[in-house]
Amino acid sequence: MNRPTFLAPDLMSARQLMLEADLILSNHSGGKDSGAMVALIATLAAELGVLDRVQVVHNPLGILEWPGSAQIAREHADHYGVRYVERAADADLLDLVRARRLWMDALARYCTAAMKRGPGLAYVTEAVTALGLDRTAVVLYGLGLRAQESTARAKLAPVAVHPRSSGRRTIHTWHPILRMTENQVWELHREHGLRHHTAYDQGMSRLSCSFCVLASAADLIRACQLRPELAAEYAAVEWEIGDVFKPSLSMLEAIARADGTPVDGERLALLKLRTKHNRNAYRLASARKKLTREDAPAGLTDRITTLRAACADLQNQMRAWGYEGALDRWELVG
Ligand code: SF4
């Protein structure tokens, strides 16, 4: 196997980590970055004679992920002869969104916690138990995040001890391809003869959930064209909870742009008013909760008054459109 030479500066620490680990897990979404990470980890592990410690872990997202993602992850594991494992969350992401009545966003990514991190950690517990060691197990948990993708990712440490480490296990969250560029990711696929998901050939730049709150407008619109039925389901949830999918692009708009049809302006205006109202109502509820605490911050009463006034004003605007809050919980604002 060809070793990815451009990673030379990180090789020493990567080798050390891998030699010390009892278990080397490589999380795989089915996307290109996961593929590059598996290539890197498996190549180094083979050189070090620790390939038997490597496992590829996929957290299936059901119909929400791109069909065929699991097959790609499995193929990549098979390519290097390492174990492939699937662990899914019990929950359905759209049910979580319905229950929360708010979409996730960059600051509140409850989706990742529920659908990926949770099942991933549960698997660590299971795998460490299976090792049957009478000392603390060392686990490397590889995530295929790259600095090039966002400023938040650029600030990540290459390795960090996971807060859920314990006397039984030390888990190192590892970002082995943090400094890899997109070109290098593709280069590695070519060098290693790894198949990539066809969604890339159909115009997607990133993969995981077909509709991701962090995706670009171009990706979301393309995803609407490729998966129109799922897009309609997301739009139905958006309307049901009264919260736009992304502040910069609702599913309603994404679908219209994908179809090349004009967006329903009235529905969009009402959806935006409902979003504003429901988000303010959410803030109001949490401010009221804080007010009951001894350490309630100063000025909270004024904030509550402002939020109530804003909600009342938005309700009046919506009544002018003939909407009486049928889908929302206006009574919480009173
Ligand atoms: S792909 Fe996007 S929407 Fe899906 S779990 Fe990850 S962050 Fe959340």
* Relative strand content: 5-15%
Element-level helix/strand string: HEHEHEHHEHEEHHHHHHH
The CATH topology annotation of the largest domain reads as Rossmann fold
Strand order of the largest sheet: 3-2-1-4-6-5
The CATH homologous superfamily of the largest domain is called: HUPs
Intertermini distance = 66 Å
Portion of residues within helices: 40-55%
Structural class, from helix and strand content? alpha/beta
What integer is the average pLDDT? 93
Uncertain runs are 3-9
What does the radius of gyration come to?
Answer: 23 Å
Bound molecules: iron/sulfur cluster
Q: How many domains comprise the coordinates?
A: 3
The tally of beta strands, per DSSP, is: 6
The CATH class of the largest domain, by name, is Alpha Beta
| Net shape | globular
Main beta sheet strand tally, sense and closure = 6 strands, mixed
Q: Number of helical segments? A: 13
